[in-house]
Structure formats: C-alpha cells, structure tokens
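Input (structure):
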C-alpha cells in the first residue's frame, strides 16, 4: 500500500502505519518488535496523568523509551486540565518523546469512571480546554486519540473533531467504533472519512484493521492520512511490513520462533530494569513476571497452529524463559 509520509508539527512519520496505544501490551519490548517489523511510529501504553503528577514509580515505567521507538508519542489520560498539563510538561522535560498524545477515547470502565478517556466525549468542551492548555504549556506537537462517539446518545463525532482542531491539536486519531461497543462490531470507516473531509489537520484511522487488505480499504474509504493498528498487531507484528510490501511472504516457522524469543527476552530485560527502580518488592522475580505478562502475546503468536490448545492449558505453569520456549518449540514442531 502506497501512502504519503505524515507530517504534523516537527514530526514526520515516513510510513504512517502506526502501533496503537494498548494498556498491558505496548510496552517498550513489544514496540521494538513492531518497529523492526515496519511500524512507522508508536505510542506508549495508556499512562495516567495523575500518576505522573503524584510521582508514581509504576506510572513512570510506562514512559520507558528505547532507541528503536522513535518517532513515539507519550500517551496520557486524565480529566483534570491541571493534571494533563503537568503530565505533558513532565513528558516534554524527559526529552525522549517526539510528541504528546491525549487520550479521549479509552472505553475501559476504571478510566471512564474517573471522567477520563471516553467519558470526555460526553463533555467535548472539556476536551477543548485540555488541548488548549496543553498546547500552551509545551512546545512538543500535541495530538488527540478519540472515537466516533461515546454511545448512540452521544454520537456527535463531527463536533468533537472540530473542537479538537479548533483548540489547536496538530493531529487526531479516530477509532471507528462507539466507546460503549469497545471492539465489537464493524468499525465505521465512513464516519472517519467524514472527519477527514471536515478537518485541515492530519487524521489517522483506527479500528478493524487485521489484514493488509483492511488497511488499503480503510484508506480508500476514508481518505485518512495514516492507519493505526492495535489488536491486529498482537501476535502478528509482521502485519506492518505486509502492508508496506504486499509481496512480502508470511513469516516462516523459524522467523516466528525468532521473534517470539526476542520479544520474551526483551520483556525480561525491561521487567528487570523497571523492578530495580521500584520502592516495593513484587510477588514475582522479573523473569517470572515477564513470562506471566507475555501470556496474552504468546496466545496470539500461536493462533492458528496445531498444538496451541495444549499450550494454552499450561500457560500459568510457565514461569521461566526456558519452559516457555520449550513449549513454543513443541507447538512449532507440529506445524513444520
């Protein structure tokens, strides 16, 4: 798929097919894998502005950045204008991020209950206040990630998009589902296209991209400037390269094995590094914690392979790298 470089502020994404921010998934280890497989840019996990404001060591771990990450956005959520401003200023001072992204679309209940994430779509003027305040407080480009609406009662995607642009945002990413539907149902790329037609700032489309053909179709239907991929990349980071080069072959068993091992080892390294900075001891040593955290990734890496069901039944027993990789090899041997 041919798509022009995306430019906003002083950021250029040469290949604007990007990895979405996903809580529990898009840590530095997984982002590095996706970047190596062709992702044009990445976002951090969904990071609490209040956590940054309150000097939470657990929150700061989400802001660990590797050399492979760039360009990368510090992705934050919150309801308070003051907290979002302070968090944005902190991210800018780190000097490791290319831009700041404000979450106005996360449908997770614990986020919505705080009046943050998708709940902000019910108060679009609050979104405008946050964007204006953050833009005034930092020099980094500022973008917004949102959805086409909160629920059928709050479907006004055009109003929200225009408020985001008028408040000074440099770019917007829009998920084509209502927040109340989470990830269920078809993503409405035509509504994303309506936003693209109405705005002057760049628009990235999100939702429903699982195959290279999906990415091409989203661009055709909506005319977006970029494509954001979330769940479609979990277990299939090769999707980015396949979108860039439709002639690319699916990963071989050996390539799949190599990426799984690299991903897990990087996750162990990341977990070890972050554990060293924690004030409180955790239940598991870093290698155990990394293997447990890797479970949802591994389940997706094994999707469609013979022997996967048996592996899934024993996931909770795999607490070290050697055991995990031995289980992976048993599955892969059945699929040679």
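Output (sequence):
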């Amino acid at each position: 798929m041919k798509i022009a470089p995306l430019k906003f502020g002083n950021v250029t994404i040469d290949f604007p097919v990007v990895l979405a921010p996903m809580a529990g998934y898009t840590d530095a280890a997984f982002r590095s894998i996706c970047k190596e497989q062709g992702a044009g840019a990445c976002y951090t996990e969904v990071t609490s502005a209040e956590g940054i404001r309150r000097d939470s060591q657990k929150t700061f771990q989400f802001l660990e950045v590797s050399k492979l990450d760039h360009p990368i956005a510090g992705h934050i959520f919150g309801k308070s204008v003051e907290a979002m401003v302070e968090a944005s200023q902190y991210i800018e001072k780190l000097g490791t991020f290319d831009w700041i992204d404000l979450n106005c679309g996360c449908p997770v209940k614990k986020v919505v209950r705080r009046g943050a994430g998708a709940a902000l779509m019910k108060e679009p003027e609050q979104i405008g206040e946050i964007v204006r305040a953050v833009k005034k407080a930092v020099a980094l480009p500022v973008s917004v990630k949102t959805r086409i609406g909160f629920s059928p009662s709050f479907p006004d995607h055009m109003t929200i998009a225009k408020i985001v642009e008028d408040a000074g945002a440099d770019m917007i990413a829009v998920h084509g589902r209502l927040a109340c539907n989470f990830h269920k149902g078809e993503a409405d790329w035509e509504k994303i296209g309506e936003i693209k037609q109405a705005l002057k700032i760049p628009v990235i489309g999100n939702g429903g991209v699982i195959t290279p053909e999906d990415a091409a179709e989203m661009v055709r239907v909506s005319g977006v400037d970029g494509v954001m991929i979330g769940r479609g990349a979990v277990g299939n980071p090769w999707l980015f390269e396949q979108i860039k080069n439709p002639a690319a072959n699916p990963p071989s068993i050996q390539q799949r094995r190599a990426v799984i091992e690299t991903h897990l080892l990087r996750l162990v390294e990341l977990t070890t590094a972050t554990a060293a900075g924690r004030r409180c001891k955790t239940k598991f040593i870093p290698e155990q914690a990394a293997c447990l955290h890797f479970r949802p990734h591994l389940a997706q890496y094994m999707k469609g392979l013979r022997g996967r069901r048996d592996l899934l039944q024993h996931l909770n027993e795999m607490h070290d790298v050697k055991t995990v990789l031995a289980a992976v090899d048993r599955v892969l041997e059945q699929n040679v």
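Notes: The CA atoms of residues 176 and 187 lie 5 Å apart. The longest strand covers residues 72-77.
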